[in-house]
Design a protein that fits this description.
83% of the residues lie in helices and 0% in strands. It is mainly α. It is globular and about 50 Å long. The model has no long low-confidence stretch (mean pLDDT 82).
């Protein structure tokens, strides 16, 4: 019973914030323009600043765990490879297969993982989780480019332009910049 109560206390605040946001939007306190602006601000400023702060203030020598980093990296790689093999068997349309692979392997690590880690371990103890972000975020984005390239049915020249634009967008990603 103790584990159930602990789990509830970890997950409940995240669900309460989501429910509060839904309620506020439902009663008309905020409109779509505000929500879109807030999302953009949070992604470009809030999350990247939080990531930077957590990495900057962590004592790298004390909390860096190469085994954890390797596990996270190879878990992402394994999931992507497995999904690239399995999904096309069931989804014949390449664009839909690509979208499904992205939907399955890309986690909400920053949006949900970090708040859950803070609720579980406390703000002072999330450094190991935060140090995974410079590994996980670029890995997710790298595989996004690879998957788009593999499943793109358009011409090679268009694919090269699309890849270049995607790589530039990824390089400008505030979460990657915050991690760096």
């Amino acid at each position: 019973m103790e584990n159930l109560i602990f789990s509830f206390n970890v997950v409940a605040p995240v669900f309460l914030v989501v429910a509060l946001g839904y309620l506020i939007r439902r009663i008309g306190l905020v409109d779509d323009k505000f929500v879109n602006t807030a999302i953009k601000f949070n992604f470009n400023v809030g999350l990247s600043t939080l990531i930077f702060k957590n990495i900057y203030t962590s004592k790298l020598g004390e909390v860096f765990n190469p085994g954890l980093v390797a596990y996270a990296f190879f878990s992402i790689v394994g999931c992507v490879v497995l999904l690239c093999l399995i999904i096309p068997i069931f989804v014949k349309n390449k664009q839909k297969a690509s979208a499904m692979i992205h939907t399955i392997y890309r986690s909400n690590f920053v949006l949900l993982g970090l708040p859950l880690a803070v609720n579980m371990f406390g703000q002072a103890n999330v450094a190991p989780v935060t140090l995974l972000m410079p590994i996980a975020i670029p890995t997710y984005n790298f595989f996004a480019v690879v998957i788009l390239s593999i499943f793109d049915e358009k011409s090679t020249e268009n694919r090269k332009t699309k890849m270049k634009n995607t790589l530039i967008t990824i390089a400008k990603n505030p979460l990657i910049l915050g991690s760096l």
